[in-house]
Design goal:
The protein is mostly helical and 83 residues long. The chain has two domains: 49 residues; 32 residues.
Length: 83
């Protein structure tokens, strides 16, 4: 229900990266060589693959600190009759 801004930001970042990558990838592959440049891209992708795991681990702490999430939980619990 409240994930539209997260989905929009994800789409925006993905589109910006896909627009910017061709601007530097040709020079990167020419200067670094194919093996080293591909390893760099793979290392970045591997590091970013840890993000969902970190969100699962630290998600409850982040949600507890969020004013918006606290307000949503309060509104849902009052509408459900839960104290």
């Amino acid at each position: 229900m409240y994930s539209s801004s997260a989905q929009a930001s994800h789409s925006f970042v993905r589109n910006v990266f896909s627009a910017v990558f061709p601007l530097f990838s040709h020079k990167m592959y020419n200067n670094m060589g194919y093996a080293r440049a591909s390893t760099t891209v793979a290392a970045i992708a591997t590091a970013l693959a840890a993000a969902p795991i970190l969100i699962v681990i630290y998600g409850p702490k982040l949600r507890a600190r969020s004013k918006v999430t606290s307000a949503i939980w309060a509104a849902e619990s009052s509408s459900n009759g839960v104290i």
